[in-house]
Amino acid sequence: MSNTNENNKQVAIEYVNEVWGKGNVDLIDKLMNDKVKLISPLTGPLAGREALKKTIIGLRKSFPEFTSKLISPAIAETVAEGQFVVLRYSSQGKHTGPAYLDVPAGMPKLAQDNTGKQFDLTGIAWLRFEEGRIVEVVEEESALEVLSQLGLVEMKKEV
């Protein structure tokens, strides 16, 4: 694997484990281009580092124990090629903070404080790099399942 691929892979892992997993938003300036774009079912489209920081800070206020990490075996399931890295992750949280209203248009809001409801999701992230920094993140995650776990939508049960 080339040195660039390995460096990009390490940046991607740090993004998931430290930025999302531990809420270390100060790392965003180091890891991401200032015009970074994020597309995710649960956040909607975000543009720029400050928008991402605001989203993570708001999420962690509502879900103080939120965590995110690579799915094990982490390194083996993280693929890097040229300017792209693809990885699998899981995230968990329990709503013990204020209402969470910062959701994409059309998505139901978690309008009550401290519901105690938990969620557990898995996702795949596709990251694009330029000059060793993340410039774009596209995520696909089990958003409908999360909304169901939080009691915001009802899913049909199998018969």
UniProtKB/TrEMBL annotation:
Record's protein name: SnoaL-like domain-containing protein
**Origin superkingdom:** Eukaryota
A Pfam family of the record is: SnoaL
Gene Ontology annotations of biological process type: polyketide metabolic process
